[in-house]
Amino acid sequence: MSLRLIANWKLNGSKEFNQKWISNFFKYFNSHDFSSLGIAPPSMYIDHLRGLLGKNNICLGAQNIDEEDSGARTGEISASMIKDLGCGFTIVGHSERRTLFHESNQAISKKLIQANRYSLVPILCIGESAEEYQDNITHEILHQQILGALKGSIETTSLIIAYEPVWAIGSGQTPTPEEINSVHEMIKDVVQSRFPKIDLASVLYGGSVSITNAASLFEQKNIDGALIGGASLDGKEFASIANVFNKIKVK
Ligand code: PEP
Fold this sequence. Notes:
- With 251 residues, this protein is α/β, with parallel strands linked by helices.
- The protein has a single domain (5-249), classed as Aldolase class I (TIM Barrel, Alpha-Beta Barrel).
- It is built from ten helices and eight strands.
- The chain has an eight-stranded parallel beta barrel with strand order 1-2-3-4-5-6-7-8, surrounded by five helices.
- The structure holds phosphoenolpyruvate.
- Phosphoenolpyruvate binds at residues 8, 164, 169-170, 206-209, 227-231.
């Protein structure tokens, strides 16, 4: 199975955190198939985590990459470096990057090209604000974000999209599972019709996913998996969500 459940640890972690997380995760995860799982720790812990995972082949990835390959860009990390560390994916265009670090569609588009160049699966995040949701313009906003990110990136052949309503991230609020399902259907239609060369591997939902709502989300046909922030910081909760996912989606 392709990547379906991604833990986004954001700016959290330490060597001690990593050890505790791994031991809790393996205590509660009840399968030996790790193929759908990914962890995006802070990039400087990728190697440490790889050592702790040993032969347990959970895919590791980055939360962000730079739009350039190398050069005078203090503090940045390139797709080639992430690849060099053995990663399989990178998140691109997370709403926190768009808002806090002013990432434009043009930068996001360049990052997608970099990811593709080094065979990292890009997880492109898109999502509407609370105001846009209330104004009932979610579909238009997402359409614009998809076109903005992908129009310069036709070399991108393999892609995962994460639909993350900005107002749902870390808030405990979510759209209804049915609403999310219909948004995901629209995303699949737009990508397939506008970018037929792109292989859209899956559309994940992100925003306050927890063990409480996981089953109701995964029961929806077009919700292929989840990008999980807060709840992924606890190895036990991430394992429990993965167990629910396996029960519903892996036949
Ligand atoms: C995220 O930031 O990608 C996210 C989904 O966060 P949370 O699960 O905490 O809402």
